[in-house]
């Protein structure tokens, strides 16, 4: 069975809250997030709402990253894009409108979040990738996508105020995490 077909089958059968992603030709199934991760996601989206009312704040939205693999499909923890960017019934969307993706690491996703997803998001040209790494207690802001990576990566300790550059353009207070 081709990997895309297996992905479709698993995705359709996944229980509510489970995340099925196709990253660099591999299927990854992730259980629902724990409370700590959801609190961080809520705080990021809340601060985005407070600073950028013009942006939609999406959690669990599917993105199609064709340059990340044959048919890469991911569900970032947070996506910021102009409101209305995903106003259709598609399960996975073109990532061209996305201004920022954020991932909050967990034991089951950290490897993908730190390596494979950086490649996929950079290839897709997403301007800002925000990696909130709970294990290393760091926040990494990746900007200037170029090929399979980001040219600029700035690391901050959890608890610090993290400047998110344009096109996002606000300071994220990670002390609330």
UniProtKB/TrEMBL annotation:
It comes from the Bacteria. It holds the Pfam family Uma2. Residues 6-173 form the Putative restriction endonuclease domain. GO terms for molecular function: endonuclease activity. The keyword Hydrolase applies. Keywords: Endonuclease, Hydrolase, Nuclease. InterPro entries: Nuclease_put_TT1808 (IPR012296), Restrct_endonuc-II-like (IPR011335), Uma2 (IPR008538). CDD domains: DUF820-like. This is Uma2 family endonuclease. It comes from Streptomyces ficellus.
């Amino acid at each position: 069975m081709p990997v895309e077909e297996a992905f479709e089958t698993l995705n359709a059968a996944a229980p509510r809250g489970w995340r099925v992603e196709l990253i660099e030709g591999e299927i990854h199934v992730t259980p629902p997030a724990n409370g700590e991760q959801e609190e961080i996601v809520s705080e990021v989206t809340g601060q985005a709402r407070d600073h950028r009312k013009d942006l939609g704040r999406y959690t669990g939205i599917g993105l199609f990253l064709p340059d990340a693999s044959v048919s890469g499909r991911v569900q970032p923890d947070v996506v910021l894009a102009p409101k209305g960017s995903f106003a259709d019934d598609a399960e996975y969307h073109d990532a061209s409108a996305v201004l920022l993706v954020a991932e909050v690491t967990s034991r089951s996703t950290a490897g993908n979040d730190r390596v494979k997803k950086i490649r996929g998001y950079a290839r897709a040209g997403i301007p800002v990738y925000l990696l909130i790494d709970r294990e290393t207690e760091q926040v990494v802001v990746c900007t200037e996508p170029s090929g399979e990576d980001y040219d600029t990566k700035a690391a901050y300790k959890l608890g610090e105020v993290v400047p998110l550059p344009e096109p996002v353009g606000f300071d994220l207070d990670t002390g609330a995490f």
